[in-house]
């Protein structure tokens, strides 16, 4: 994905406020040289942030006629308005090693024995993973095949086929669960016997 940024010459709270009023978003690009103060069109950025690839892939940023490879690192939203307040990017090249969260795309769930035969539902315990790799190897997403899932057996990190050069950061957990089948809950039907009918004289009708 590519986007256009413009050099931001004025800094400070007042300057940033005026930029936002004018429909711009202040930002910064750091790494591999001097930090660059930038501004972006708010509406274009707001729509770009809705796309998964904008968060988890290397982006082409055009600034002053030159194109740089950057990675989205952070952005701040207004507490209650649909407004982007600030955004941070990191310059990357072929030698830059990064740690980044990428989304998981689950496939094959409906064809698994757990779902197709045992009528289980699948709980996606996590929907993204933190990985470390070279910037040029960063995948947009990681595909997780659930077609082999069976009742009573969860899928773990070590079961995922990762692209070459990708390592998962588990933060001390050796082999976290990714997805697990949940057995259907059987409803117990309780039959309550009806009370004998009253004959109107205070006596209960029943069998003699």
Tell me what you see in this structure.
- This protein is mainly β and 208 residues long.
- It is 12% helix and 38% strand.
- It has helices spanning 13-21, 42-48, 52-56, 113-116; strands at 2-7, 24-30, 36-41, 59-63, 66-77, 84-91, 97-107, 121-124, 128-134, 142-145, 155-156, 167-168, 177-182.
- The strands form three sheets. The protein has a six-stranded mixed beta barrel. Strands 10-7-9-12 form a four-stranded mixed sheet. Strands 8-13-11 form a three-stranded antiparallel sheet, with no helix packed on it.
- A hairpin with a 6-residue loop joins strand 5 and strand 6 (84-91).
- It is elongated, with a radius of gyration of 28 Å.
- The mean pLDDT is 87.
Question: What overall geometry do the principal axes of the alpha carbons give?
Answer: elongated
Structural class comes to mainly beta
Distance between the termini: 86 Å
Largest sheet: 6 strands, mixed, barrel
Structural topology:
Layout (H helix, E strand, L loop, with lengths): L1 E6 L5 H9 L2 E7 L5 E6 H7 L3 H5 L2 E5 L2 E12 L6 E8 L5 E11 L5 H4 L4 E4 L3 E7 L7 E4 L9 E2 L10 E2 L8 E6 L26
Parallel strand pairs: 1-4, 2-6, 7-10
Antiparallel strand pairs: 1-3, 2-3, 4-5, 5-6, 7-9, 8-13, 9-12, 11-13
Précis, in short:
The chain is mainly β. It contains four helices and 13 strands.
Summarize this structure as a short list of keywords or feature phrases.
six-stranded mixed beta barrel, mainly beta, 4 helices, 13 strands, four-stranded mixed sheet, elongated, 208 residues
């Amino acid at each position: 994905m590519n986007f256009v940024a413009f050099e931001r010459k004025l800094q400070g709270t007042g300057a940033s406020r005026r930029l936002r009023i004018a429909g711009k978003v202040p930002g910064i690009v750091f790494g591999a040289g001097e930090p660059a103060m930038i501004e972006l069109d708010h509406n274009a950025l707001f729509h770009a942030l809705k796309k998964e690839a904008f968060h988890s892939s290397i982006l082409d940023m055009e600034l002053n006629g030159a194109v740089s490879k950057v990675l989205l690192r952070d952005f701040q939203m207004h507490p209650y308005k649909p407004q982007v307040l600030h955004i941070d990017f990191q310059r990357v090249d072929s030698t830059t090693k990064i740690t980044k969260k990428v989304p998981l795309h689950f496939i094959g769930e409906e064809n698994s024995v757990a779902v197709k035969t045992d009528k289980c539902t699948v709980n996606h315990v996590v929907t993204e993973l933190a990985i470390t790799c070279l910037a040029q190897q960063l995948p947009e997403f990681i595909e997780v095949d659930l077609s082999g899932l069976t009742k009573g057996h969860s899928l773990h990190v070590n079961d995922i086929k990762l692209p070459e050069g990708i390592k998962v950061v588990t933060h001390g957990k050796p082999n976290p669960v990714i997805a697990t089948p949940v057995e259907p809950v059987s409803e117990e039907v309780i039959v309550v016997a009806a009370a004998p009918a009253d004959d109107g004289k205070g006596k209960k009708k029943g069998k003699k």
